[in-house]
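Running log. JK asked me to keep both predictions on one page so they can be read side by side. First protein, sequence followed by its tokens:
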Amino acid sequence: MMSKVVRWKAWHELQGTRRQDDVQHSYSLVVLALNFIDKLHLYLYLKNDPLLIIRAVTYHEIGEGELGRDVLLANKTDAKDLEEYEAFVARFRNLSGFNRCHDAFLLQFVPKRPANFPPEAQTIMARLAEENRYDVYAFQALENLNYLFYAIEQRVTINNRDCLARVFLMARPILDSLAQKLPGLREEYWTPEFIAYCEEMALGGNTAVPK
């Protein structure tokens, strides 16, 4: 199912950017997460749970895959988040090790903490916020960096500035905030040099979603 969910659909269909499905997205995020964990190990020694992060990036799109859809960040709602959560639970609840998968899937929702999620999920998200805050920050950073890397690829390969302009506009304030909370992010990834590079590469791009 995940291979049928096309991401960046508006850019792909209207501007010719590379087709990416949920499987490719999740795989690229796992590869990035492994590099991320290695680089931030010394900054986060004993402060994070690398396996939780790997599980989170591996499972986080299962709900979309089950529903056969991709929802743009600007179009996400609590109701749609709940639908994806329920689809994930329906698929995984009878598997051994469900609790670990459950925690990992919910990691992505901790910053938002949707009020319509069931009490069990609320309890888990509250615990993750308290005990795994660096993992929450890491997931957010990974997701936004991954978006940027895809958009940079389109700028480099087909000279598409629009996708990068849009993603940089959305990701920059999030990564700026995370760089103040997640040790190592500013030093290893969200460096002044990388920010300047993104600014230059996105210059002149249209920040609106193609229609």
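And the second, directly underneath as requested:
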Amino acid sequence: MTRPVADPIDMQTFQDAVHRWFWEATNIETIWRRQSNVQPKYPYATLMITDGPNPVSPVWEDRYETDLDRPAGEEVKITVCVPCHFTVSCQSYVGRPDGKDPDYDAQNYMNKAQSSLMLPSVLAMLREKEISVVRPGSVQNIGLLVEDAFESRANMDVVFGASLSLDDYVGYIKTVQVISESLGIDEIIGL
């Protein structure tokens, strides 16, 4: 019996956890960057998975679990899994910075987000969702001139760790008959 392949990772949980981290760290409206999204009012931030999942190893681990109460032909559960990395591009947009308020700057929001990745509470929240922080990138000033005014923007790429995992179910061989006339063997082995 052929079944469709399940999702190897719960992307909704992954995206919700990353969004929660960034939004709580910066306290500005944070959205996933998509062409169809309406631009929020300044200040705001966007997130986008730019790379991944990338398996860390070319070889996936196999785990076996037998449960004879499962339907015939599905008694053995085989789980294949591998650690993986995702790169998330985080960008903050402030619009025109306020020269009288140094905190109203895109890099300031990104500095908060970057630093918060070392807080035990943030790491615990991510770990609860089976996500780790592999490497926070550097904060980059990507501000630009729009029409006649400078807009404050900043970027940081963060590499997160997670794992890919798929289950498959197969049957097992209950008994085997071994016959060898030259050795004088005729045995049934198994249950």
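Observation for JK regarding the second prediction: The mean pLDDT is 88.
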